[in-house]
Amino acid sequence: MSKYFDPVSREDDLKALKRYLQPLKGQPGMLMGALHHVQDELGFIPKEAQELIAAELSIPMTEVYGVITFYSRFTEIPKGKKQISVCMGTACYVKGAVKILQEVETITGVKAGTTSEDGRVSVSTTRCLGACGMAPVLTEGTQVHGRLHPKDVIALLDHLKEDPKAMEEAQKHLEKAGESV
Ligand code: FES
């Protein structure tokens, strides 16, 4: 399980962040670096970290929050061990990205923009990935899969093969759809 769901680790993370921020105090232009640091370290930027950054760097919370929501690299939601993202750019949308996303959500049981409670998988949508010739496209971690049909999705989600519970869910789903894995 991800440590990010553990309140004890969270406290340690905040102490470490406070130490990291100490030498940056009073220096202008440190916000982006601090946010990248937290994103890299934790995989997301929790509210407590935002508040600490704002307090330690004497920056209004509204500014911290504004930067986080502006840049797609930053997220307030903890990412799962497996990260699946479906492209919703125009080319992918026209080629059936909505159906691909529905299939991903059904198979994983995770709605777009959220992470499973056990931290196993997160599902998101993304803007154009620059692979429009392969539309519709999804990414699983760093892997890009293109020219997808909704039926292809189950074979692509590798974590299903490593996770008996998830595989059982997927099988149920496909049985309902009159298919087999
Ligand atoms: S629209 Fe999906 S890769 Fe460009």
Describe what you observe in this structure.
The chain has 181 residues and is of the alpha+beta class. It is built from 9 helices and 5 strands, in the order H-H-H-H-E-H-H-E-E-E-E-H-H-H. The protein has helices at residues 7-21, 31-42, 47-57, 61-70, 90-94, 97-108, 153-156, 159-162, 164-176; strands at residues 82-87, 114-115, 121-126, 138-140, 143-145. It has a 5-stranded mixed beta sheet with strand order 2-3-1-4-5, with helices on one face. Helix 1 (7-21) runs parallel beside helix 3. The protein is elongated and about 60 Å long. The chain binds FE2/S2 (inorganic) cluster.
At a glance:
The chain starts with 6 loop residues before the first helix and ends in a 5-residue tail after the last helix.
The largest β sheet comes out as: 5 strands, mixed
* CATH class categorisation of the largest domain: Alpha Beta
What is the helix tally?
9
Average pLDDT, rounded to a whole number, is 84
CATH architecture assignment name of the largest domain: 3-Layer(aba) Sandwich
Biggest β-sheet: strands ordered side by side in the sheet: 2-3-1-4-5
- Which molecules other than protein and nucleic acid are bound? FE2/S2 (inorganic) cluster
Helix content: 40-55%
Helices and strands, in N-to-C order?
A: HHHHEHHEEEEHHH
Shape: elongated
Number of strands: 5
- The CATH topology of the largest domain is given as Glutaredoxin
The percentage of residues in β strands lies in: 5-15%
Give me the secondary-structure category.
Answer: alpha+beta
